[in-house]
Amino acid sequence: MRRGVSIEDDPSSPENASGAPPPRTGHDVFISHSSKDKAAADAVCAILEQRKIRCWIAPRDITPGKEWGEAIIDAIAGSRMMILIFSANANDSPQISREVERAVNKQVVIVPLRIEDVAPTKSLEYFIGSVHWLDALHQPLESHLERIAGVVEGALEGDASAAAKQASESPQRPAPIVGWPIRSVLSRGGTAAHGEPRLGRTQKSRRVLALGLAGALGTVALLAAVELYFRSHQQSKRLTEKDTIVVSDFTNTTGDAVFDDTLKTALNVSLQQSPFLNVLSDSQVAKTLQQMTRPTGTKLTPELVRELCLRAHSKAYLAGSIDSLGSEYVLGLKAVNCQNGDTLAQEQVTASSKEKVLDALGKTASRLRSELGESLATVQKFDVPLAEATTTSLEALKAFSLGRKTFNEKGSASALPFDHHAIELDPNFAVGYDALGVDYSSLGELERSSEYHTKAFQLREHASEREKLAITAYYYDNVTGELNRAVQTYQEQIESYPRAPAAYVNLGVIFAAQGQYDKAADVTRKAVQLSPETLAWDPNLANYALALQRIDEARQIVRDALAHKKGDDFILHDALYALAFLGADSAAMAEQQKWFADKPDYENAGLALASDTEAYAGHLRNARDLTKRAVDSAIRADSKESAAVWQANSALQEAAFGNPTEARQLAAEALKLASTSQGAESEAALAFAMAGDTARAESLAKELGKRSPLATQMQSLWLPTIQAQLALDRKNPAPALNALQAAEHIELGQIDFVANLSCLYPVYVRGQAYLAAGQGAAASVEFHKILDHSGIVWNCWTGALAHLGVARANALQSRSSQGADSDAARVRALTAYKDFLTLWKDADPGIPILQQAKAEYAKLQ
Predict the structure, then answer these.
(1) Cβ atoms < 10 Å from Cβ of 235
(2) 335: part of which helix (H) or strand (E)?
């Protein structure tokens, strides 16, 4: 009667067979071991294979895609002998019990190798209680390898009885030989190698000692050779910090769809804790698949992943599999060299239940990191268990996986339902909330984005160290707005993960928000060096080049990105539109408008850009119509916050052009669309102030200051500008200029919710304040600052009115000076007025500021 759990009924078992067992033509030896004893099993396998003995060992010899259970059954049936690495771990493994039972049923000779002094469980004793044992109870294991190899050779060259005789030549529990790891066999006392008492150093023992010494020296040489082999063999399998690896989709033979995509996502999270390993990003995988003329969502099977690995110039790919054995699950990971197909590292582990799969996968991935060359110190430092780094819910992780996959293939709007479902299934899923924050940020819904990023920050302890740093930095950047703390956190992330390009890119974004575009460009170039094929860096670099007035460089960056077909990106087309505008290329602007029009999620941004271009030229009626279309498009795309920002921007235009009634109405409508949007409220507050509605402006400013007490841009840029405009409303330029001193260090900073980089409102209002204070020269400097930074301002109305500001500043200088200085200032003023009136030659005639400019110009002539 069989004991234990049979994997499947087999007609060749002893109950169904007659006569001698069939001949076996597969491997010579099947090595049965617990995954926790892998080092010992690998050592035994290596010494046997040096002697040309064919070994089968899991997971190395399991063909990718083949069911684990089927592979093990076939391997046992095709082997002549089983070596059982016996330990407490083996006792605890139901899988080993099944393997031993299968070997008994197949009449395979079993040779137990005991590496720990423990007795077998009753279920194992039933099968192996009467066989001869080999003991290797004292380390190092290498000291026992020759004896083990001799036993196996004797059995394979002769018969099982010969092996049993050789194994039994020593007592059941032989004395220790040497310590672990490899040391000289002369370094220990105790008993002799085969259990004989060590003789004292008498005349009688000299001959024995001499012979023993000679043998020992030979053994030392052998062990040194073995150690050298192991080290060189292991070194050739290690990766370097510059190597990238590709993670394939898991081969799932369990029949349970919850593991599809989920385990790959979990493995990526686990591996990305490593500062050593570089996993090929999803965007790079998608790009490579496109080069292979395959859809971006193509499943990465073991067959396909090697080709992709070669195409992407990666060093290795990582194939994973999961199979079920009763209520247990067997997980396997194998790292394979892309070039030659050699196995670099492999791990196998059994999870006792479905709930334990993530924990088992995380531990297996940690061991694999070490095998691939990562230092033990960083493996231990950055090794948060997967259930803590992600979620304990496989269903939530599956929803999250589908969300990320959809995000990469179809964009943020399509990913939202999956990401929402993930946090519904696990309300403590920190990375799930972070993903939702990214989704809404991509759609311009910054208030919603802040809500989810705040929740992710509150739950950041439920994340890996890498994710925790990313969540923290994003929170300081986009929620509290503490740019200096965001910089510090991203720098910490770079220190821990110096080869992770995203941290460099995000640090660049913070520098840009601080107006430090040189720093932003420098740090982003480091990301390009680490990941040159990634599209996401190029639009940012193009914008930084624009901000630094390096127009040709920006154009080249965009051309290179398109030439290398890195992909398509909203920000890239935003920069393309800016380049076309700055180059007065109406055909190129129309081409970009067509791109926006074909993308429902981004159409509103294209219409907002077109509206600004019309307003820049004084075509106010056209601008109003385009703004209305932009607002409607944003609402259709479920982006009311974007709609509110476009409406508030229109309110600022109307106020600047001299239409306060329209400005107040539009600002009020913007607040109705998104009453809690910081971006819309900031613009609306400034619009109210410029339109003379001081009560509404002051109320909004007070609320903004209360809600964002730590935000760098709010406290140093927006509020000082609003307060300065309120002071100008009261005909008091001195407090206005004082208030704007706080903005000087950040006034060129990029604003993340507008269509351009920034309209430079603090600079514009400061110029107006100097005019009101009668300081023409100082006012001219401010308005020229706007003109000199057209790569930041783009098509914002401040860029057009800066020409008028320069004209008024020089006219003021002309009036306040005498002689040649007055004449020179008058000439400069006339030139500036001509520039403005030429720019607005086709402007709508009823715009108040245009009428004022014409009157001023006529008076000056």
Answers:
(1) 9
(2) strand 328-337
How do beta strands 328-337 and 316-325 pair?
Answer: antiparallel
Q: Is the CB of residue 348 less than 8 Å from the CB of residue 332?
A: yes
CA atoms of 368 and 365, how far apart (whole Å): 5
332-337-342-343 Cα dihedral, nearest 10 degrees: -20
- Cα(507)–Cα(486) distance, integer angstroms: 8
* Beta strands 134-135 and 278-279, pairing class: unpaired
Task: Report the SS3 class of residue 82.
Answer: strand
Token code pair at residue 701 = 């400013």
CA distance linking residue 331 with residue 320, whole number of Å:
7
Smallest CA-to-CA distance from 222 within 278, 125, 143 is with 143
Strands 109-114, 81-86: pairing is parallel
First to last CA, the chain: 115
Arithmetic mean of pLDDT, 361-382: 89
Question: Cα dist. 711→107, 521, 591, 717 in Å?
Answer: 75, 23, 38, 10
Angstrom CA distances, 245 to 232, 371, 389, 722, stand at 22, 14, 21, 52
Nearest one of 728, 724, 791, 729 to 761, comparing CA atoms:
724
Residue 328 β-bridge partners: 325
Give CB contacts under 8 A, 24+ apart, made by 8-17. Answer: 8/69, 8/73, 10/73, 10/105, 12/77, 12/106, 13/105, 13/106, 14/105, 14/107
Count of CB atoms situated within 10 Å of the CB of 20: 7
Percent of the chain's residues with pLDDT above 70? 86
pLDDT in tens, 129-155: 666 678 887 767 777 888 888 878 877
Query: Residue 203 CB: number of other CB atoms within 10 A?
Result: 6
In DSSP notation, 232-276 reads: HHHHHT---TT-EEEEPPPEE-SS-GGGTTHHHHHHHHHHTT-SS
Classify 647 in phi/psi space as left (phi over 0), alpha (psi -120 to 50) or beta. alpha
Q: Determine the residue type at 358.
A: L
Residue 461: partners with Cβ closer than 8 Å, 6 or more residues away: 430, 468
pLDDT in tens, 721-740: 999 999 999 999 999 999 99
The structure tokens listed for 157 are: 């060259």
In whole angstroms, how large is the CA radius of gyration of the chain? 37
3-state SS class at 251: strand
d(CA 461, CA 709): 25
In angstroms, the Cα distances linking 235 to 141, 239, 240, 296, 496 are 21, 9, 10, 35, 25
In whole angstroms, how far apart are CA 571 and each of 442, 478, 512, 535? 10, 18, 15, 11
> How many CA atoms does the CB half-sphere of 480 hold within 13 Å?
16
Instruction: Please name which of 761, 704, 695, 771 lies closest in space to residue 731, comparing C-alpha atoms.
Output: 771
pLDDT tens sequence across 87-122: 999 988 888 988 988 888 788 888 898 888 888 888
Helix (H) or strand (E) holding 346: strand 343-351
Q: Classify strands 134-135 and 109-114 as parallel, antiparallel or unpaired.
A: parallel
Distance, CA of 737 to CA of 734 (rounded, Å): 5
Q: Which of 160-169, 336-345, 717-726 has the highest mean pLDDT?
A: 717-726
Tell me if residue 472 falls in helix, strand or coil: helix
Q: Do 42 and 50 touch, CB atoms closer than 8 A?
A: no
In terms of Cβ atoms closer than 10 Å to its own Cβ (0-12, 13-18, 19+), residue 237 is: middle
Which amino acid would we find at residue 658?
G
Region of residue 73 (left: phi > 0; alpha: psi -120 to 50; beta: else): alpha
- Treating both helix axes as pointing N-terminal to C-terminal, what angle do 501-513 and 537-547 enclose, rounded to 10 degrees? 30
